[in-house]
């Protein structure tokens, strides 16, 4: 596929740059083996335990060093021989975008993910290592997997055809947005933290104790969930504000890949809360915790292995990691299935009936909610995987149609769950106690309302010209005013919008870059909705000065810039380096020489010439052969035509307000569960589910105790 | 009472599953990479990917019609007709994914997705 970055994994070579990654892999492997051995022989104070801890910390330091080294190499502006740095950063990028270049690409984002997972593992180790080598050996195996991927997709791989002194291309301008700068690390933090419930679930399965892990992993699950939610929302905001297609969610495989684990972790949170208070859904929670982890791996497989590169314009290309990702995905899937089936009988919860035994209660609402979220997961999972199943893509309408009944069911269940609690005594106390859930649920309701309202948008396409004509749409009149050129590569086209005596200047920015033209929409927000103006096409006239082959080499054919009296001649070109030398002669003026490189437009006399491509008439015969260069001309006198798409999106702010409330509710819940665990002695984790636990026997007493931090039976 | 609730749940899930099958059939667009396949694909929308033949595109400002030619890997060409604004980045694109229907003399696209030019093509190692 000549589409995206095509690089096969070369032979494994250790260099001074990537050496720490190899060292880290060695250490984490030792750590894994030690923890694994400790899990079997159960000698927590043996030298093997300190070796396991020491190698874990060393491997983390090595990854941390690699990350800082990468950052320093980007900031130094001297290491453009490293392919990653060359592709994702450049000397002209602002500091924040040099930093975000660290995770702009696949290799770098893997490095950040590994680092974050490593730090989370440190917290687990501090509290749990002596208690449960099982958890740490699982964690180390995951870390080893990521580090192995870093060896295959080496972030420090050198460019083969690097020309000394050449600069990096700079960050893709679409990613030059504050939201996008912080979006990836937040998503990866979520992914990394959502592996914690899986680690606890494996522990619970092996120990046959499916009760105590719930309390321990709730804050982690909430933390991962809040991060993932925030990361997804940042991506939505970016998509809306930068991409200019007018929406915030396109059901693209890359988006779906993060939505799938989000849905399962949302279900998991509800299941964990229900198990915590009523010891219900014990089995389902184990399945959901492991399922979330496996689906995070599956999401990475879909977006990083290149399997969907034909179906999405966004999917990452394969860096040679395909077989590794698949192997790890399958291993963890098989491990999960084996453990769950082997322990199925041992992990059932004891059912505590609702005190009033009523049909509609908070419990049944939560259970049904988990079921609905599971269905939602299946819809997105099947839709996203469809290209792998049937060699066919699924249009977004599949998801929008399928999510309608699901969203309706979610609204009904949230209302039922809330009001079922209200009908009891102590309404106010109950409402206050569950305030975090209420905040998040109000957020979900607002989000759904916002999605529905903003989808009733009206859209019109208007062709605007510099001749001063106006077009009316959505109660406004639009006219093309002028185009400013603040820098050589930036154009700002001003559209004047009028309604009555009200006049607004809407600037539409187009940036010409090495990655192509980037057009940003203009959004005018109000309480009623957004007016969204998206530049669909800014037609830039092109000229094609040519030269013909003669016995003495190329001879330029004169070329007039239409309607201006100025001429331009092609006096030389280098096809290899995508360079053309031109001679520009203004009307009644003296010739000036201009050199245009691909991605580096040249400005002269108020015109900007941007290299488009080389053209030739295809003749093999020397006598008739001509070749030329196509240039885009932006300039003062050339007629310009701008196509804009204008749309009105009612109440779209509800989407953002709703997601903000969801994040707020989740964050508050995380703080609450964390403080509940504050006094918890992790050392008490019993080996089997035999002992009568505090949570099972009496849910109310257990909860009250838990809030005071007492957990020992 | 509980039995009825379970039955209702099962019924709802079954209904939803049925809806899923119907929707999936309606919204799936087979993915096609060769012109030969395109000609035998039958009715209904498909997705076709190919490389844009250099210099083949014609765009009408007044009517917003875009005509261009895509070539598959075997070098077989197909004319694409698209009614709509020229997608941004089209001029510098090397490949395009078109969604629409093949109608004997050409491909009627309802959507044109542009794949960015590969500046990394030459850098295989």
Write the layout of secondary structure elements.
The complex is a heterodimer of chains A (713) and B (125).
Chain A: H1 19-41, H2 47-76, H3 83-88, H4 95-100, H5 106-128, H6 133-152, H7 178-193, H8 195-207, H9 212-243, H10 253-278, H11 282-304, H12 322-342, H13 362-390, E1 392-394, H14 396-422, H15 427-433, H16 435-455, E2 458-465, E3 470-473, E4 476-487, E5 490-499, E6 502-513, E7 516-519, E8 522-526, E9 529-539, E10 542-543, E11 546-550, E12 553-556, E13 559-560, E14 567-574, E15 579-585, E16 592-597, E17 602-604, E18 607-616, E19 626-634, E20 641-650, H17 653-676, H18 694-697, H19 699-708
Antiparallel strand pairs in A: 2-20, 3-4, 4-5, 5-6, 6-7, 8-9, 9-20, 10-19, 11-12, 11-19, 13-14, 14-15, 15-16, 17-18, 18-19
Helix pairs in contact in A: 1-2, 1-6, 2-5, 5-6, 5-7, 6-8, 7-9, 8-9, 8-11, 9-10, 9-17, 10-11, 10-13, 11-12, 13-14, 14-16, 16-17
Chain B: H1 2-27, E1 28-32, H2 35-40, E2 46-52, E3 58-60, E4 65-71, E5 77-83, E6 95-102, E7 107-115
Parallel strand pairs in B: 1-2, 5-7
Antiparallel strand pairs in B: 2-4, 2-6, 3-4, 4-5, 6-7
Structural class of chain A: alpha+beta
Mean pLDDT of chain B: 78
Count of separate DSSP helical elements of chain A = 19
- Structural domain tally of chain A: 3
Give the amount of beta strand of chain A, in percent. 15-25%
Q: Report strand % of chain B.
A: 35-45%
Averaged pLDDT of chain A, please? 82
How many helix segments of chain B?
Answer: 2
CATH topology of chain B: OB fold (Dihydrolipoamide Acetyltransferase, E2P)
Number of domains of chain B: 1
- The fourth-level CATH homologous superfamily of chain B is Nucleic acid-binding proteins
Major beta sheet summary of chain B? 5 strands, mixed, barrel
Oligomer: heterodimer
The percent range for helix content of chain B is 25-40%
Question: How widely separated are the two ends of chain A?
Answer: 62 Å
Low-confidence stretches of chain A: 1-10, 686-713
Radius of gyration of chain A: 30 Å
Classified by CATH, the class of chain B is Mainly Beta
């Amino acid at each position: 596929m000549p589409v995206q970055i095509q690089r096969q994994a070369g032979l494994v070579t250790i260099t001074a740059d990537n050496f720490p990654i190899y060292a880290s892999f060695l250490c984490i492997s030792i750590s894994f083996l030690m923890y694994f051995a400790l899990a079997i022989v159960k000698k927590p104070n043996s030298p093997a335990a300190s070796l396991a801890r020491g190698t874990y910390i060393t491997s983390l330091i090595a990854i941390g060093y690699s990350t800082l080294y990468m950052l320093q190499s980007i900031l130094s502006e001297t290491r453009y021989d490293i392919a990653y740095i060359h592709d994702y950063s450049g000397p002209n990028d602002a500091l924040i975008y040099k930093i975000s270049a660290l995770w702009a690409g696949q290799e770098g984002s893997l490095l950040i993910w590994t680092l974050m997972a490593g730090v989370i593992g440190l917290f687990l180790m501090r509290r749990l290592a002596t208690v449960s080598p099982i958890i740490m050996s699982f964690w180390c195996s995951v870390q080893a997997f990521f580090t192995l991927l870093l060896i295959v997709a080496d972030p420090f791989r050198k460019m083969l055809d690097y020309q000394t002194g050449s600069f990096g291309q700079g960050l893709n301008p679409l990613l030059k947005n504050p939201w996008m700068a912080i979006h990836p690390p937040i998503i990866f933090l979520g992914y990394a933290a959502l592996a914690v419930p899986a680690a606890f679930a494996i522990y619970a399965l092996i120990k046959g104790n499916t009760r105590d892990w719930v309390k321990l992993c709730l804050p982690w699950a909430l933390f991962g969930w809040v991060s993932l939610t925030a990361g997804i929302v940042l991506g939505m905001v970016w998509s809306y504000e930068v991409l200019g297609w007018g929406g915030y969610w396109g059901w693209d495989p890359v988006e779906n890949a993060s939505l799938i684990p989000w849905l399962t972790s949302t279900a998991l949170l509800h299941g964990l809360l229900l198990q915590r208070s009523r010891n219900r859904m014990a089995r389902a929670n184990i399945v959901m915790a492991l399922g979330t982890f496996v689906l995070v791996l599956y999401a990475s497989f879909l977006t990083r292995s290149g399997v969907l590169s034909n179906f999405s314009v966004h999917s990452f290309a394969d860096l040679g990691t395909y077989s590794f990702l698949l192997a790890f995905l399958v291993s963890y899937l098989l491990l999960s299935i084996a453990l769950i089936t082997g322990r199925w009988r041992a992990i059932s919860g004891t059912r505590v009936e609702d005190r009033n035994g009523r049909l509609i209660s908070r419990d049944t609402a939560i259970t049904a909610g988990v079921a609905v979220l599971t269905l939602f997961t299946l819809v997105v999972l099947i839709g996203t995987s469809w290209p792998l199943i049937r060699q066919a893509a699924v249009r977004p309408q599949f998801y929008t149609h399928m999510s309608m009944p699901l969203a309706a069911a979610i609204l009904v269940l949230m209302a039922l769950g809330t009001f079922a609690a209200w009908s009891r005594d102590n309404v106010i106390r109950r409402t206050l106690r569950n305030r975090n859930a209420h905040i998040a649920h109000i957020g979900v309701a607002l989000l759904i309302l916002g999605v529905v309202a903003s989808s009733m948008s009206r859209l019109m396409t208007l062709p605007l010209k510099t001749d001063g004509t106006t077009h009316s749409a959505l109660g406004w009149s639009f006219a093309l005013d002028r185009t400013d050129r603040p820098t050589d590569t930036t154009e700002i086209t001003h559209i004047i919008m009028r309604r009555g005596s009200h006049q607004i200047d809407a600037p539409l920015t187009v940036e010409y870059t090495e990655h192509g033209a980037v057009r940003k929409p203009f959004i005018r927000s109000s309480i009623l909705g957004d007016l969204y103006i998206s530049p669909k096409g800014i037609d830039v006239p092109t000229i094609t000065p040519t030269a013909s082959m003669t016995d003495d080499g190329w001879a330029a054919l004169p070329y007039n810039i239409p309607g201006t009296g100025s001429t331009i001649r092609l006096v030389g070109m280098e096809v290899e380096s995508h360079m053309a030398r031109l001679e520009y002669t203004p009307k009644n003026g003296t010739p000036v020489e201009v050199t245009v490189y691909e991605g580096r437009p040249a400005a002269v006399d108020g015109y900007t010439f941007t290299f488009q491509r080389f053209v030739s008439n295809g003749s093999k015969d020397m006598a008739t052969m001509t070749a030329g260069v196509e240039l885009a001309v932006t300039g003062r006198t050339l007629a310009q035509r701008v196509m804009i798409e204008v749309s009105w999106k009612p109440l779209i702010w509800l989407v953002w307000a709703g997601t903000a409330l969801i994040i707020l509710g989740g964050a508050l819940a995380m703080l609450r569960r964390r403080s509940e665990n504050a006094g918890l002695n992790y050392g008490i984790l019993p080996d089997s589910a035999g002992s009568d636990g505090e949570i099972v026997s009496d849910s109310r007493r257990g909860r009250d105790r838990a809030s005071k931090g007492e957990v020992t039976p | 009472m509980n039995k009825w609730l379970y039955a209702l749940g099962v019924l709802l899930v079954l209904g939803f599953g049925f809806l899923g099958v119907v929707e999936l059939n309606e919204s799936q667009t087979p993915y096609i990479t060769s012109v030969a396949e395109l000609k035998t694909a039958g009715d209904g929308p498909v997705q076709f990917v190919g490389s844009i033949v250099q210099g083949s595109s014609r765009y009408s400002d007044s009517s917003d019609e875009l005509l261009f030619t895509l070539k598959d890997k075997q070098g077989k060409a197909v004319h694409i007709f698209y009614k709509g604004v020229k997608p941004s980045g089209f001029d510098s694109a090397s490949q395009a994914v078109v969604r629409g229907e093949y109608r004997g003399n050409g491909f009627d696209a309802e959507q044109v997705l542009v794949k960015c030019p590969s500046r990394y093509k030459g850098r295989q190692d």
